Fold these 4 entries.
Entry 1:
Amino acid sequence: MNTLKNKVNLIGRLGAQPEVVTFDSGKTLARFNLATNENYKDKKGEWVESTQWHTINTWGKTAERVKQHLTKGQEIILEGKLVHQTYETAAGEKRYATIIEATEFLVISEKKEVINK
C-alpha cells in the first residue's frame, strides 16, 4: 500500500532526445522532458489545448533502456514518483524543483511523421 502514496502515471511525448550521463560511481542517469496535453472548453465554449512539460529522471537499468529505446517525439506511458529537489544557484539563491523519477516506461507510438502533400 505504500506505493500508492506517491505514484505518478503519465502518457505523453518526448520533447527532446534524452540526456544520458554515467557517473564515476558507475550509476547511470537519463533525463528527458515529457509533454502531456489536455483539451477542454473555455468559458466561451471554444476548445483549448493545454500542454504541461514534466522533467523526468530515470536511474540504473531503466536509464540504460531509455538510452537504447527512446527518441524525441515518441509517445510513451511511464510510471514513477514525485521527487522534490532543493538547490542553490551560483548567486546563492535557493531554488526548488519537482521532477518525476520514472521506474518504468512503455513506448506506445513512434515519432509523429510529417506528411507533405
Entry 2:
Amino acid sequence: MKEAKVLFSNDVLLENEKVMKLDYSLIESISETDKSPYYGVRVTKYLDGQIETDEVAGLSASREKVVGILKKLCEYEVTPISLVEILDCIQTMEDMDILDELIMQGV
C-alpha cells in the first residue's frame, strides 16, 4: 500500500506572468517482506489546467532523510521533469560525502 501526503508547496511566478504551482509529497509504502515503512517523493506541477507528476517511491527507510530531500526540492523549485536527475545528483553527492568521510578516517 502506498500513501502520499503533500508536505510543501510553491507558487512560482513565471516570466510570462503565469503561476505554476508545485506540490512536494512524501510517499510512505510498507515493505511486503518485513512490513517496515520506506519513503519516497512525488512532485506535482499544475499549470494552465494541466497536471504533470513524477515520483520515486523507494528512496530511504528514514522518514527524516526523505523530508529533508523534499524540503530541498521545494526550496529549489524542482519540477517533475527534472526530479529523477536531481535525486540522482543528491544520491551521488551523499555517496561522495560518505566516501570522503571514510577516506578522512583512514578506512
Entry 3:
Amino acid sequence: MTTFTVHAPDGDAVAAARADRLTYLPEKMSWGALLLPMVWAPWRRLWWAFAAWIVATVAIDLFAARVDAGLAAVVSIGFALWFALAGNDLRRWAAERRGDRLVGVVEARDEAEAEARFLAHLADPSRPRFGRVEAAPSPAADRPAPSLARPASASPAQAPVVGWAVPGDRP
C-alpha cells in the first residue's frame, strides 16, 4: 500500500472533485526521476527542480574534472538516488507554489484506488473533513460547569480531534 496526498486548487476539495482537478501524489520513489531525470522534470513541469538538477550535474562534472573522478561518481550516484527519492516531494512543493492545497491523505495500491477512496470519504456527510477541527464529545455533558478553582487531581479537557477521525474513536 502507498500513501497518497490529495491536493486541490485553493484547498476546496468538493469544487475540485466536481471539476476533476484533484491531484494525487504518491509517497514513494520516482523511477522516472531516477532513470530519466532530464526528461522527467520538464514532463512534470518542475522547472525550478530541473534548473537545480542541471546546476548540480554541472557542478559534479566540474568536480570530477578537477578533483577526483571516483569520488565524483559516488557523489553523482548519491545525487541521482536523492533526486529520485525526493521527486514526488518536489511535485508537492510545485503544487503548493501553484496554489494547490493539501486536502487529504489516502492509503491505496494505486492512483485509481486512491481516488475512489478519497471521493467515497468526501461523499460521506457523516465524516469530518480533513483539516476541520471536531470537538470530542464530553462524557459528562449533563454535569454542571466546574468552578474556577479546580482541584489538582482533575483531568484537563480533551484536545480536539483533527482529520478523518470518527467521533468516539479516541483512545
Entry 4:
Amino acid sequence: MGADSLDADLPIGERALSRLRWRCRRGMLENDLFLQRFFDRYADSLTQQQASALADLMDLSDPDLLDLQLGRKLLSQLDAGLDRDDVIEVLQMLRENR
C-alpha cells in the first residue's frame, strides 16, 4: 500500500474544502441545492479520495449531474470514466441528501 492510498482516507484541509466548494458552484439551482446539502452534512468528514471523486463529478454538464443525482442515468451510461467505486460512493452520498 503506497503513500497515496494512505492519504486518500485523510480528511481534506480547510483550504482544499474551500476550493472544492467553489469548484462545485453550478449553473443549475437544483444541483446547487443538492451540493449545499452534501456539504452541510459531509464537509467535516470528507476525505481526500471523496473530494477527488466529487471534483471528477463536477466535470459533468449540469443536466448529466442532475440526472445522476435523481437516478435517471447511471454512471455507466456516461462516457466519462466515472464508473468507479469512489465516484459511486460520493454519488450515493449526494443522493442521500435529496
